[in-house]
Amino acid sequence: MESCGTAVSCMAAAFLLLLLGLLSSMAQQNELQTGVAGGEVTLNCTGILPDSKLSQDTVVTWKYYDTLLCRIEKRNYWKTPAFIRGGFDIKAPYKQLWMQNLKLSDAGIYTCEYSSHKVRTSLHVFKLTISLDGHFLQNEVPELILMQNSSSPLPDLNIALFDSNNNRVTPELQNKSRQKYIVNLRKLEAMDSGTWVCQVHSDSPLIKQNISFAVKVLGFQNPVLERKYVTVDSTVILSWHLNSQKIRWRKGFTGQLNWKQQESANAHELLNFSVPAQGELLETKKSSIFLFEIPERKPESTIEVRLPKVHFNHSGQYQCQLEYQGRHAQSQIELVVMKVSANPVGPLSRGANMTLTCQVSRPLPPNAYLRWERVNGTKMDIKSSKQREVKLEVNISAAGLWSCHLIEDSERKISLHYHVEEAAVWINYVIIGASVGGSLLAFALGCLCIISGISRHRRRQRAKRMAQARQHLLENKTCQCQHWLKK
């Protein structure tokens, strides 16, 4: 009987404790709130009635841990120095605690008490910082640092990043601790400028926080490397489009445009430019190694060079370079010039041959080649170059319009034509007559040379014989004189 009474007493005590706990949980509510450093957050005093329905004797207090922040009684506010230093405020009519310009140190337990109720809010604060204050040049890699602070043990976070076009970006995790996460993004391009989102997730406690941050990428809207094909004597404008106006880049930067014919050659500065704080583009011509112009009318934030008459040696690398706070970004246009020529120059005679030459100033990429073809000709009149060949020659015997095409990825980039005229009939006869006459003249000259040679040979032989006869006669006279003297 005693054991039974003891059991009943235990069950009653347990029921009483459970009832007290239930009442206590009803009187005290626990909430989780997240905020971002530099932002603002509003903490609710859940269950409180509006001002119009509060009784005159209702007292509302806000505490940070055990530190009293404010006391509201009969619609009068009593604010402590801690409340004033923290920059807090009370939002009517529900007596919410409004916090602005959050800091990591603001994380902790905030308690709202009224009547027999107590609302306990755990504030979890995140802080996201981006390197270089979010101002980058293209091809630079941003570093993000995410920190968190809370009154409870810090959770293990999952981080997802989305760029300005809402595309998910996979970051490279450099360092990780429960308090600090350091990640690197990919290389930036000018089109990446805009608002990015860092999505923070935790399962325990359940947290899903989106943190927005601004990214400004100063750079060129051109590709990093662009190839431009032109023909000799044509006009070309080389343009570099900056995005400084588009992203409202307020701070000044400088730059220059350099040209060199080959990779290993010395670079020549064609012009330099600067953008002061007001955003106007100022350009100064620096070189006169060849004729070029700076167009006067152009869109803002555009660097342009105009070559009014392209020469074959104008080809090369034109590199536009930006400089900002000791960092550099550049975009390059490779200019390739094409020319055609013929040997011999002039009308093509019947039965004669001519060599047409098509040449480019720089090696072509593997997906590009040259091709000669005769307009309205046959497949026999088509000849293509080999990979990376800069010169293509074709021997022709047919007059007409011949075209040299530069083809890249099965697309004709540029074409240059050479019209081969056919010699007139009388010109052919003149050429034939001149050829025959020339042959006859050469034959006659040969005969004259032979006859003249034979005549000279005979004269030399006759002179030689006469000299021998005189010598012989002289010797005979000498002998006769000696014989007469002896007598």
Question: Would you kindly provide a brief summary of this structure?
Answer:
Helices cover about 20% and strands about 45% of the residues. It has about 475 residues and is an alpha+beta fold.
Broad structural category: alpha+beta
**Mean pLDDT over the full residue set:** 85
Oligomer description: single chain
Poorly predicted ranges? 1-8, 10-26, 426-431
Radius of gyration: 49 Å
Question: Helicity level, as a percent range?
Answer: 10-25%
Distance between the termini: 207 Å
What is the global morphology? rod-shaped
Counted by DSSP, the helix tally is 3
Report the β-strand fraction as a percent range.
35-45%
Number of strands: 31
Main pleated sheet:
9 strands, mixed
Compile the SSE list and pairings:
Blueprint (H helix, E strand, L loop, with lengths): L1 H26 E9 L4 E3 L15 E6 L2 E7 L2 E4 L1 H5 L3 E3 L4 E4 L8 E7 L2 E14 L4 E3 L5 E7 L8 E5 L5 E2 L2 E5 L3 E5 L9 E9 L4 E12 L6 E7 L4 E6 L11 E8 L7 E8 L6 E4 L16 E6 L8 E9 L2 E17 L10 E7 L7 E7 L8 E2 L6 E6 L3 E9 L2 E10 L4 H62 L1
Parallel strand pairs: 1-9, 10-17, 18-25
Antiparallel strand pairs: 2-7, 3-4, 3-8, 4-5, 6-7, 8-9, 9-11, 11-15, 12-13, 12-16, 14-15, 16-17, 19-23, 20-21, 20-24, 21-22, 24-25, 25-26, 26-29, 27-28, 27-30, 30-31
